[in-house]
Amino acid sequence: MTSTPATPPPHGPRHPGDNGPASRRRTFRHIYPLRVLGMGLGGLLVASVLHQHQTLPDYWMLAVFSFLVWPHLAYLHARHSANPFRAEIYNLLIDSAMVGLWVPLMHFNLLPSVVLAAVTTYDKFSTGIKRLWLYSLPGMLGMGALATLLLRPEPRLESSLLVVIFTLPVIIVHTMAVSVASYRLIRTVARQNRELEAMRRTDAQTGLAARSHWQEQASDSLERYHARHEPACLLMIDIDHFKPINDLHGHTVGDEVIRAVGQVIRDCVRAHDHAGRYGGDEFAVVCGNARAPEAQAIAERIRDRIAALRLRELPELHLTSSIGLAETMRSQLSLRDWINDADAALYRAKHQGRNQVAGPAVAPPPAPQPA
Question: What is the mean pLDDT of residues 76-100?
Answer without folding.
Answer: 94
